[in-house]
Amino acid sequence: MLQNFWYACEFSHAVTHAPKQIELWDQRIVLYRDDSDHVVALRDVCPHRGAALSLGKVHGDCIQCPYHGWQFQTDGTCTKIPSNPSHTAIPRRAIVKSYPVQEKYDFIWLFWGDLPFEKQPALPTIESFPRSSFRPIYHEVTIHCHYSRVFENLLDPAHSTFVHSDSFSPHSVADLPRRLAEIKFFPNSIGGSFYRIIQKTVPKWKILAFWEALFGGKKVSQTKSSTRFYLPNFIAETLDDKIKFRHFFVLCPVNNEKTIIKIISYRNFLMHPLVDGLFQKFTDKVFKEDQLILESLMSSDQSPDDLTAEIYVAGDAMTVGYRKLRKKYRGESILINS
C-alpha cells in the first residue's frame, strides 16, 4: 500500500447530496456533497454501533446515521444525538474519521495518509485533459486481482497482440510496427510516460464500423499513442490522428484481491449520445479480455518489489520503472510537488 498519496476514487458526477459508499483498502468510506456542493469524505462507520452512514440521509452539511439518528458534520464531529437529554454533552469519542478531498479532472481524489495539509503533495497536472469539444463516456470494470497487476497491464504495449486479437483483429494488431520511444520518468516526481507510433492498414472486415467509415481501410500513418502514469493509481492515455481519444483510467484498490477500474473515455467525433453504447460495448469487451488473463495469473497478488523475482525484456521497461518508483515511495512520506 502506498501511503500519503492522493487516490482518485470516484467519478465527480456520481457524488451527489445523497450518501454514496465506496471501498478503498478494506475501508468503507461515505461520500456526499454539502450545502456548498463541496465533496465530503468520512469513514462509513458510525462510532455508536457501527452502522453504515451511507444508508442514512444528508441534512445540510451533516450526515445522519440511519440507526439512531446521530449527525456528523463535514470534519466528522458529532453535532446531534437525538436520544440524549437536552444540554447533555456529546461524548468526545463521538467522531468519525474524515479524509481530505479534492475534485479535479472529473474525478474525486481522496488523500490516504497522515500528512498535515501543508505537507500534502499537489495533484498531478494532467496536460491531456480535454476541453468541451470532447464527449465523455463512463465505464466501470471489476477485476479480482491486486491493483498493481492491473496497473502494469495498462502500461504493457506488448500484450495487445495476443490478449486483444479478437477485438482489434489479428492483422490490425500483430502487424503493427510499434516503436516505444521517449520513455521518461519524471524527475523528483511520481510517474512516467511513453509513446508508441502505430502505422497500419485497417482491415474493413474486423474493425469497428466508425473506424472504417473514417479511414476507409486506408493506411493510418504515424498515429501517436501516448501514455502517462501517476502514482498511486492514475493513467492517462491519448491517441491523436484524424480522430482524437483521451482515456483516463483510475484503479481503485478495494482490497488486496479486488480492483475497480473507473474509466472516462473522451472523443472528438461521433458526438451523438446514441453512439455511446457502441463505445461502451467495445470497452467492455476489451476489458473482459484483460480480466480473463489477469484473474488467471498464478501471482495475482501485489507485483513484486524484488526485480529478480520475475523475468524482464525490452518491452517491460515501463513495468520495471513503475515497480522501482513504487518501491521507492512505499512507506515514505511524499514531500514533493507532483
Automatic annotation (TrEMBL):
It comes from the Bacteria. One of its GO terms (molecular function) is dioxygenase activity. The keyword Iron applies. Residues 6-110 form the Rieske domain. Keywords: 2Fe-2S, Dioxygenase, Iron, Iron-sulfur, Metal-binding, Oxidoreductase. PANTHER family: BLR4922 PROTEIN, IRON-SULFUR DOMAIN CONTAINING PROTEIN. This is Aromatic ring-hydroxylating dioxygenase subunit alpha.
